[in-house]
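Consider a concrete sample entry:
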Amino acid sequence: MKILIGLDASNHSERVLDFVTRMRWPAGSRVIVLSVLQPVASTVAGAYEPTVIPQENLEGLRQQLEELVARAEGKMREVGFSTEGRVLAGDPRQSLIDVAQSERADLIVVGSHGRSGIAKMMLGSVSSHIVTHAHCSVLVVKQTGRAPGGGKEPRS
């Protein structure tokens, strides 16, 4: 089985990795860990025009994502996966779809930030886009600690 894991620099990425390492996968499963550097950031100011991130900030972000991918690869290798890591530049939604297609991935695993309403419309949703456009199955790892109604889960 070929599994594509999409990571960003949020806490949700750690949850994705924890989820994948706890699951049973077919022998010989291979993991591709992918993070995408998006050179344009959305802003909520003014006329909602996207802004370009300055080059010096891009290099820092790229280094942060490369370290994230390297740590994720290490974690996946510890539990026995064959791994490959990549950091690409572009739109995360399309990059994940393109890599899944070109690598003939069987599964894409991404996290959910749990945004809804106006925040989701303003910021977009990578996981929603992936679910809608991927050629393969998609697993969205949700935030923990929340019940379906948005409240906290009861403690046992």
In short: Residues 80 and 100 are 21 Å apart (CA to CA). The chain is about 40% helix and 25% strand. The helical segments are 11-22, 55-78, 92-102, 117-123, 126-133. The longest strand covers residues 30-37.
